[in-house]
């Protein structure tokens, strides 16, 4: 999920939101909204998470009762996100822990790569296992004819059933619970009414917040009969991920990851999209270290240490590794329309090697 472009996201309110009071000398806005499932959420307070010249996003929170199944008569938080093209309303049971960027609008990350204790690792492992199980569930149920919104619903429901929060939801304003990137979409695809067709490939990137920790994993799935080149692309990307993981051990150079991934991709005849990297992860969604998937001089002699946890998530494409970001401020596509694939695991560096936590 983390990118190196530091892109500014443009998010705006839709016309269905009615402003009825602006408190003087305050950024707090009081509004009224009618929820389409029959529940009325009225006159609650909205706090902007972040405002800039081209970025405006609001999180709506309320302790009203949600009337929609499975939350009927269950006290819950009503979360709302609006962008220029996407609207989302979700009920989160109040018993589920929320990440800091939802509760306080702040991204809390360490300044340096964290070395976790055995206790922290044991607390983080359930989140990673849950993310892996939800990804497996999606893989077992994805099929031609469903929409990417349906995938979002599957992920959200499984998170809530497990007592977890879907980490992407409202992270820097992202409006959905999962990223779904189809064909030429390299990453950060927003679930929508887009129908998956025969021959498509789609990456599903899942992160959950559970027991105070995030777990992050992704895979690319094929729909029906897929052309040989797309299958080769998917296999090569998996091989690159596995190669990147294989060099991780206490004392290894971080640059070793990008070197071997780039080498493997070239051998297979594909390009690595260099603009997006893996990241440290824990009680924070994204943090140091940055895991670069191509050769990089700026990493210097930085070395891994036992107890570090981070993701490796290379994106390969069958064409030029040039990208653009669409008007929604999130969706990244290849400029030449070539297909891309991505696979991801959260790993732990150990003294003897590494452990894949999302396996």
TrEMBL record:
Uppermost EC category: hydrolase
CDD domains: MetAP1
InterPro entries: Creatinase/aminopeptidase-like (IPR036005), Pept_M24 (IPR000994), Pept_M24_MAP (IPR001714), Pept_M24A_MAP1 (IPR002467)
Transmembrane annotation, as ranges: 12-33
Keywords: Aminopeptidase, Hydrolase, Membrane, Metal-binding, Protease, Transmembrane, Transmembrane helix
Keyword Magnesium: no
Residues of the Peptidase M24 domain: 123-351
Residues bound to substrate: 188, 286
Organism for this UniProt entry: Elysia crispata (lettuce slug)
Protein name: Methionine aminopeptidase
GO molecular function, one term: metalloaminopeptidase activity
Known catalytic reactions: Release of N-terminal amino acids, preferentially methionine, from peptides and arylamides
Obligatory cofactor(s): Co(2+); Zn(2+); Mn(2+); Fe(2+)
Record bears the keyword Transmembrane: yes
Note on how the cofactor is bound: Binds 2 divalent metal cations per subunit. Has a high-affinity and a low affinity metal-binding site. The true nature of the physiological cofactor is under debate. The enzyme is active with cobalt, zinc, manganese or divalent iron ions. Most likely, methionine aminopeptidases function as mononuclear Fe(2+)-metalloproteases under physiological conditions, and the catalytically relevant metal-binding site has been assigned to the histidine-containing high-affinity site.
E.C. no: 3.4.11.18
Residues that hold a divalent metal cation 2 according to the record: 216, 279, 313, 344
Record: residues binding a divalent metal cation 1: 205, 216, 344
Role played: Cotranslationally removes the N-terminal methionine from nascent proteins. The N-terminal methionine is often cleaved when the second residue in the primary sequence is small and uncharged (Met-Ala-, Cys, Gly, Pro, Ser, Thr, or Val).
Family the UniProt entry places it in: Belongs to the peptidase M24A family. Methionine aminopeptidase type 1 subfamily.
Domain of life: Eukaryota
Gene3D superfamilies: Creatinase/methionine aminopeptidase superfamily (3.90.230.10)
């Amino acid at each position: 999920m983390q990118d190196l472009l530091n892109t500014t996201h443009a998010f705006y309110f839709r016309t269905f939101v009615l402003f009825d009071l602006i408190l003087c000398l305050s950024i707090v806005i009081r509004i009224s909204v009618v929820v389409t499932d029959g529940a009325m959420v009225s006159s609650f307070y909205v706090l902007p998470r972040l405002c800039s010249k081209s970025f405006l996003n609001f999180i709506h929170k309320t302790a009203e009762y949600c009337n929609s199944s499975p939350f009927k008569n269950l006290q819950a938080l009503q979360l709302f996100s609006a962008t220029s093209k996407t609207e989302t309303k979700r009920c989160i049971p109040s018993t589920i822990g929320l990440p800091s960027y939802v509760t306080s609008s702040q991204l809390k990350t360490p300044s340096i790569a964290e070395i976790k204790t055995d206790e922290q690792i044991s607390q983080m492992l359930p989140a990673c296992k849950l993310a892996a199980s939800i990804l497996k569930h999606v893989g077992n149920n994805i099929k031609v004819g469903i929409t990417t919104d349906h995938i979002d619903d599957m992920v959200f429901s499984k998170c809530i059933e497990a007592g977890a929060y879907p980490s992407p939801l409202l992270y820097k304003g992202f409006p959905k619970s999962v990223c779904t990137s189809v064909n030429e979409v390299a990453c950060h695809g927003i679930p929508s009414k887009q129908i998956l067709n025969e021959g498509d490939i789609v990456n599903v990137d899942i992160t959950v917040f559970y027991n105070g920790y995030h777990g992050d994993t992704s895979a690319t799935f094929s729909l029906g009969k897929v052309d040989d080149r797309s299958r080769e692309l998917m296999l090569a990307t998996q091989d690159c991920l596995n190669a990147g993981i294989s060099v991780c051990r206490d004392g290894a150079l971080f640059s070793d990851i990008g070197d071997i991934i780039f080498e493997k991709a070239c051998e297979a005849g594909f390009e690595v999209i260099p603009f997006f990297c893996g990241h440290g992860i824990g009680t924070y969604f994204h943090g140091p270290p940055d895991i670069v998937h191509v050769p990089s001089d700026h990493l210097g002699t930085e070395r891994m240490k036992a107890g570090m946890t981070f993701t490796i998530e290379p994106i390969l494409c069958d064409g030029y590794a040039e990208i653009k970001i669409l008007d929604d401020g999130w969706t990244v596509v290849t400029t030449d329309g070539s297909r891309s694939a991505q696979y991801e695991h959260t790993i732990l560096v150990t003294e003897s090697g590494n452990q894949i936590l999302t396996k």
